[in-house]
Amino acid sequence: MAGAFVVEGLHKSFGALHAVNDVSLDIEAGQVHSLIGPNGAGKTTLFNCITGFLRPDAGKVLLNGSDVTHLQSHKLVKSGIVRTFQITQVFGELSARENVELAARSREGLNFDLFRKASACREAREDAEEALEVVGLIEKAHLRPEELGHGDKRVLEVAIGLALNPEVLLLDEPTAGMSRTETERIAR
C-alpha cells in the first residue's frame, strides 16, 4: 500500500543538466523525513517540482492516491501540500500574528470575502494563535518580521505553513543561517 504522499520517478532537466533524476519517495501520514545533500544537489528543484513552481519532465506526485503532479502551486496548497522557501517570504508591514492569520484566512477562502462569517474569522484567529504557540512565537506575535531575529523569521514561516493545515509541509533549508540553539528549536 502506498503512503499518503508519494513521488514516483520524478525527473527535471535543464538542457544537459539533470537536476532531479528518478527521485521516488513514499511517506506515510505523520512521518518526518529529511532530504540532505550539498548545495546544487537538486533539493530545491525537487521541491519546486513537487509544489508546482516547476513542471517535472517525467514522474508523478500523489497525495492520498490522487495525482496532483500538474496542479498549479496555489491549488496544491488547497489540496494540502505546503512549502517554505530558502529565503523567508513574509509580509514585512504585518505583525507575526497577522502574517499567520492571513495564511489561516486564505485556507478558508476568507481574505476577500466581504460577507464572511464571524465564526470563520474567529477560527482563523484561533488557528493562527495555535500555530504561533506551537513554534514558540506567541510572546513575539505582535512584532513585525523586521523586529524579529533571523531564527524567529524562519520559525514564523513554519507557523504560516502550519496555519494552512497541510497534509505535507516541505521546509526548504529551514535552519540555514541559524545558531545551534535556533536549529534545536526548529527540530522540536
Structural write-up:
The chain is α+β, with helices and mostly antiparallel strands and 188 residues long. The chain folds into 2 domains: 1-73, 3-Layer(aba) Sandwich (Rossmann fold); 80-188, 3-Layer(aba) Sandwich (Rossmann fold). It has 6 helices and 6 strands. The chain has helices at 43-50, 73-79, 96-107, 118-134, 150-163, 180-187; strands at residues 5-14, 17-27, 58-63, 66-67, 81-83, 168-170. It has a 4-stranded antiparallel β-sheet, with helices on one face. A hairpin with a 2-residue loop joins strand 3 and strand 4. Helix 3 (96-107) crosses helix 4 (118-134), helix 3 (96-107) runs parallel beside helix 5 and helix 4 (118-134) packs across helix 5 (150-163). The radius of gyration is 17 Å and the shape is globular. The relative contact order is 0.15.
Largest sheet: 4 strands, antiparallel
| Number of E-state strands | 6
Low-pLDDT segments, ≥5 res: none
**N-C termini distance:** 29 Å
Structural class estimated from helices and strands? alpha+beta
Task: Order the strands across the largest sheet as they lie in space.
Answer: 2-1-3-4
Q: Quick one: CATH class of the largest domain?
A: Alpha Beta
Radius of gyration: 17 Å
Instruction: Determine the mean pLDDT.
Output: 87
**Domain module count:** 2
List the helices and strands in order: EEHEEHEHHHEH
CATH-assigned homologous superfamily of the largest domain: P-loop containing nucleotide triphosphate hydrolases
CATH names the topology of the largest domain as: Rossmann fold
